[in-house]
Amino acid sequence: MQVPQLGRLIVVDDEVEVVKVLLEMLAGQGCEAAGFYCGEDALKALRRQDYDLLLTDLVMPAMDGISLLRAALEIDPYLVGVIMTGKGTIENAVDAMKVGVFDYVPKPFKLNALWLKLSRAMDLRRLGLRDRSQEAIGVYDQVVERFGGREEPALAEQVARALLYKGLALGQEGRSQEEIGVYDQVVERFGGREEPALAEQVARALVYKGITLRQEGRSQEAIGFYDQVVKRFGGREEPALAKHVAKALVNKGIALGKENRSQEEIGVYDQVVERFGGREEPALAEHVAKALVNKGIVLGKEGRSQEAIGVYDQVVERFGEREEPALAEHVAKALVNKGVVLVCLGRDADAVAACEQMEQRFGDDKTPVVREEVKESFDNKCFALSRLWRSTGKQSFLDQAIFAGRAYVGMGGEAYNLACVLVLDGKLDEAFQLLEKCLRDGEVQWAKVEEDSDWADVRNDPRYSELEIKNGGTS
Fold first, then answer.
1. N or C, which terminus of the chain has less Cβ within 10 Å?
2. Digit-coded pLDDT (tens) for 67-86
């Protein structure tokens, strides 16, 4: 039986252990899940990123589950909510069904029973998104038809929003040419209006059109529309417009990268930092952080490693103490990338220090993107420590390398590097078990094993010969 995929899910409970258990269960079922201990943090995540399901405790301090769901549905009306409730609060949970809760789960619960309820909830989400997409486009068309001729700013803004939402709905259905046409309508209808709310919708339409063109491989055309955003709105100070200018510049940099115009790409990222580096608004700070991380990546690819490290340090220095999830993601990415560059330079001790800084700052972070960066940091650390062991012979480095490798594999990483380190430490039983799994799962080809010096001292082991025969070895 095929395991159903839940998609993206938020878990909210003020009990740390409950969140931890649920995240582990959901990860094991192939879900992308983020855990939070209060409603406000969950709402911040919902504003930044689309989620399919909200699984929340009913009774929590500050914001209860019903209030959280009510606020979440204002952000995403198609979000499916499931409430967990302790003994004695089931009546409240039933009342919550009227707010829009799909189902409730009494505590304590069995994980299998919870999984079945979540699977059914996801079926509703899929049907809702598919059926409502067409329905939504029809509603947006009604808004334009009824109020498209009205000049009042408030109504004009709603017409512009309706067109933008229609464009996004068309994009979700893969109808990109119609999507682009709708964004053009926004610019044609409202491009001459000066009201900030309407100017924001025009800027948004131009950015969305650029992103759609870039995704279709039409990078040069996309760059032109990003330039329009900067030209039209680059002198405006309103935060909403500044955000779209920053976003246009970052996306222009990415498009230039697709065209292999790396020096121009770096120059655009520098523009973002120069224009918005002194602004404190979270949305602008996020684009500055992203521009710096992207610049570091480009510098690293060009072999300008020392400059790349300096840029990553800027990200950590500027935003390392900020709590906004989007900024935390960029800080985590900067630390991981810094570690990779240091490993490539052979500065293994410095690489280990960067990895440890990463663990200290983000080791307990449950955000999926940050967890992925933490995982990669453990892989870098394992490799750097194994090289330190080779150069110094200190057993403590090898022990730490094994610990880091186990952490990486435990978070879903490939096991080959850990198998190599275990061979170095003489733990051959576990090493051969992992190697066999890597070969079976296609994580590594036998040709790489034959070339890898880490296995040289055990090539006379019968288990090595067996694996060699199974996998078509040449020696």
1. N
2. 898 888 878 777 888 888 87
